[in-house]
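Structure first, sequence second, as always.
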Protein backbone atom coordinates (compact mmCIF):
# COMPACT_ATOMS: atom_id res chain seq x y z
CA UNK A 1 0.00 0.00 0.00
CA UNK A 2 2.83 2.40 0.89
CA UNK A 3 4.77 1.64 -2.29
CA UNK A 4 1.69 2.09 -4.46
CA UNK A 5 0.89 5.41 -2.81
CA UNK A 6 4.45 6.67 -3.31
CA UNK A 7 4.47 5.48 -6.93
CA UNK A 8 1.20 7.24 -7.78
CA UNK A 9 2.07 10.37 -5.81
CA UNK A 10 3.97 11.76 -8.81
CA UNK A 11 0.73 11.76 -10.84
CA UNK A 12 -1.69 12.76 -8.08
CA UNK A 13 0.37 14.79 -5.59
CA UNK A 14 -2.50 14.99 -3.12
CA UNK A 15 -2.08 11.33 -2.16
CA UNK A 16 -0.71 11.21 1.38
CA UNK A 17 2.37 9.11 0.62
CA UNK A 18 4.50 10.91 3.21
CA UNK A 19 1.80 10.40 5.80
CA UNK A 20 1.62 6.69 4.99
CA UNK A 21 5.39 6.26 5.14
CA UNK A 22 5.60 7.99 8.53
CA UNK A 23 2.62 6.04 9.89
CA UNK A 24 4.09 2.74 8.68
CA UNK A 25 7.45 3.62 10.26
CA UNK A 26 5.74 4.51 13.53
CA UNK A 27 3.89 1.20 13.47
CA UNK A 28 7.08 -0.69 12.65
CA UNK A 29 8.89 1.02 15.52
CA UNK A 30 6.04 0.22 17.89
CA UNK A 31 6.09 -3.39 16.78
CA UNK A 32 9.85 -3.60 17.27
CA UNK A 33 9.76 -2.52 20.90
CA UNK A 34 11.62 0.71 20.09
CA UNK A 35 8.85 2.78 21.66
CA UNK A 36 9.32 0.94 24.93
CA UNK A 37 13.06 1.61 24.84
CA UNK A 38 14.20 -1.93 24.14
CA UNK A 39 16.68 -2.73 21.42
CA UNK A 40 14.85 -2.83 18.09
CA UNK A 41 15.00 -6.35 16.71
CA UNK A 42 12.77 -5.56 13.72
CA UNK A 43 15.20 -3.20 11.96
CA UNK A 44 14.71 -5.14 8.71
CA UNK A 45 11.10 -3.84 8.72
CA UNK A 46 12.46 -0.29 8.72
CA UNK A 47 15.05 -1.11 6.04
CA UNK A 48 12.38 -2.77 3.89
CA UNK A 49 10.13 0.26 4.29
CA UNK A 50 12.94 2.63 3.22
CA UNK A 51 13.82 0.42 0.25
CA UNK A 52 10.18 0.05 -0.77
CA UNK A 53 9.41 3.78 -0.55
CA UNK A 54 12.64 4.79 -2.31
CA UNK A 55 12.15 2.26 -5.13
CA UNK A 56 8.53 3.33 -5.66
CA UNK A 57 9.61 6.98 -5.69
CA UNK A 58 12.23 6.38 -8.38
CA UNK A 59 9.88 4.21 -10.45
CA UNK A 60 7.19 6.90 -10.32
CA UNK A 61 9.70 9.56 -11.33
CA UNK A 62 10.97 7.48 -14.25
CA UNK A 63 7.45 6.71 -15.48
CA UNK A 64 6.51 10.40 -15.34
CA UNK A 65 9.79 11.33 -17.04
CA UNK A 66 9.21 8.84 -19.88
CA UNK A 67 5.57 9.86 -20.34
CA UNK A 68 6.59 13.50 -20.56
CA UNK A 69 9.45 12.62 -22.91
CA UNK A 70 6.94 11.04 -25.29
CA UNK A 71 4.28 13.69 -24.62
CA UNK A 72 5.17 15.65 -27.72
CA UNK A 73 3.54 18.87 -28.83
CA UNK A 74 0.43 18.48 -26.70
CA UNK A 75 2.44 18.44 -23.48
CA UNK A 76 4.66 21.29 -24.73
CA UNK A 77 1.57 23.41 -25.37
CA UNK A 78 0.17 22.62 -21.92
CA UNK A 79 3.45 23.62 -20.28
CA UNK A 80 3.67 26.78 -22.41
CA UNK A 81 0.17 27.85 -21.25
CA UNK A 82 1.31 27.83 -17.64
CA UNK A 83 3.80 30.54 -16.78
CA UNK A 84 4.81 28.65 -13.63
CA UNK A 85 5.42 25.37 -15.44
CA UNK A 86 7.30 27.07 -18.27
CA UNK A 87 9.51 28.87 -15.75
CA UNK A 88 10.03 25.67 -13.77
CA UNK A 89 10.95 23.77 -16.93
CA UNK A 90 13.42 26.45 -17.97
CA UNK A 91 15.04 26.64 -14.52
CA UNK A 92 15.21 22.87 -14.24
CA UNK A 93 16.81 22.58 -17.66
CA UNK A 94 19.43 25.15 -16.74
CA UNK A 95 20.09 23.51 -13.39
CA UNK A 96 20.46 20.03 -14.87
CA UNK A 97 22.72 21.24 -17.68
CA UNK A 98 24.98 22.87 -15.06
CA UNK A 99 25.05 19.63 -13.09
CA UNK A 100 22.58 21.04 -10.57
CA UNK A 101 20.82 17.81 -9.81
CA UNK A 102 20.55 18.95 -6.21
CA UNK A 103 17.37 20.68 -7.40
CA UNK A 104 15.90 17.24 -8.14
CA UNK A 105 16.71 16.13 -4.59
CA UNK A 106 15.37 19.31 -3.01
CA UNK A 107 12.20 19.23 -5.12
CA UNK A 108 11.39 15.73 -3.80
CA UNK A 109 10.67 17.29 -0.43
CA UNK A 110 8.64 20.24 -1.80
CA UNK A 111 4.87 19.90 -2.30
CA UNK A 112 4.30 18.81 -5.94
CA UNK A 113 7.99 19.45 -6.62
CA UNK A 114 8.59 15.85 -7.54
CA UNK A 115 5.86 16.00 -10.19
CA UNK A 116 7.07 19.24 -11.72
CA UNK A 117 10.69 18.10 -11.86
CA UNK A 118 9.90 14.67 -13.33
CA UNK A 119 7.52 15.96 -15.98
CA UNK A 120 9.64 18.97 -16.90
CA UNK A 121 12.84 16.94 -17.18
CA UNK A 122 11.09 14.54 -19.56
CA UNK A 123 9.35 17.26 -21.56
CA UNK A 124 12.64 19.15 -21.93
CA UNK A 125 14.25 15.91 -23.20
CA UNK A 126 16.97 16.01 -20.57
CA UNK A 127 19.23 12.99 -20.71
CA UNK A 128 18.21 10.15 -18.42
CA UNK A 129 21.75 9.99 -17.04
CA UNK A 130 21.33 13.61 -15.88
CA UNK A 131 18.02 12.89 -14.17
CA UNK A 132 17.74 9.29 -12.93
CA UNK A 133 20.73 9.23 -10.55
CA UNK A 134 19.48 12.41 -8.89
CA UNK A 135 15.99 10.95 -8.73
CA UNK A 136 17.41 7.85 -7.01
CA UNK A 137 19.26 10.00 -4.49
CA UNK A 138 16.12 12.09 -3.95
CA UNK A 139 13.93 9.02 -3.43
CA UNK A 140 16.37 7.43 -1.01
CA UNK A 141 16.87 10.67 0.95
CA UNK A 142 13.15 11.34 1.20
CA UNK A 143 12.33 7.75 2.18
CA UNK A 144 15.08 7.61 4.80
CA UNK A 145 14.05 10.98 6.24
CA UNK A 146 10.35 10.07 6.36
CA UNK A 147 10.97 6.66 7.90
CA UNK A 148 13.39 8.14 10.43
CA UNK A 149 10.77 10.71 11.45
CA UNK A 150 8.19 8.00 12.12
CA UNK A 151 10.64 5.61 13.75
CA UNK A 152 12.29 8.11 16.08
CA UNK A 153 8.99 9.83 16.77
CA UNK A 154 7.66 6.53 18.11
CA UNK A 155 10.87 5.84 19.97
CA UNK A 156 10.96 9.22 21.71
CA UNK A 157 7.26 9.97 22.14
CA UNK A 158 5.81 6.47 22.30
CA UNK A 159 3.48 4.77 19.90
CA UNK A 160 0.83 7.45 20.04
CA UNK A 161 -0.88 9.77 17.63
CA UNK A 162 1.29 12.51 19.11
CA UNK A 163 4.41 10.80 17.73
CA UNK A 164 2.85 10.57 14.28
CA UNK A 165 1.61 14.17 14.49
CA UNK A 166 5.00 15.58 15.49
CA UNK A 167 6.65 13.55 12.73
CA UNK A 168 4.17 14.90 10.18
CA UNK A 169 4.80 18.47 11.30
CA UNK A 170 8.52 17.86 10.76
CA UNK A 171 7.84 16.42 7.29
CA UNK A 172 5.61 19.37 6.33
CA UNK A 173 8.21 21.77 7.72
CA UNK A 174 10.88 20.20 5.52
CA UNK A 175 8.49 20.43 2.57
CA UNK A 176 7.82 24.11 3.24
CA UNK A 177 11.54 24.84 3.52
CA UNK A 178 12.25 22.91 0.31
CA UNK A 179 9.44 24.73 -1.48
CA UNK A 180 10.88 28.05 -0.37
CA UNK A 181 14.39 27.10 -1.56
CA UNK A 182 13.13 25.75 -4.90
CA UNK A 183 11.18 28.97 -5.63
CA UNK A 184 13.99 31.25 -4.54
CA UNK A 185 15.89 32.81 -7.39
CA UNK A 186 19.63 32.08 -7.39
CA UNK A 187 21.79 35.15 -6.82
Amino acid sequence: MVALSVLLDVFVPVLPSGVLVITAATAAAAGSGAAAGSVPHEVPDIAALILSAATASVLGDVVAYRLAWRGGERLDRAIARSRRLATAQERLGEALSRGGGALVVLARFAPAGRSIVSFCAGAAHRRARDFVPWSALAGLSWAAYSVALGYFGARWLGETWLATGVSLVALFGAGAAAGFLVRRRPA
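Margin note: The radius of gyration is 17 Å.
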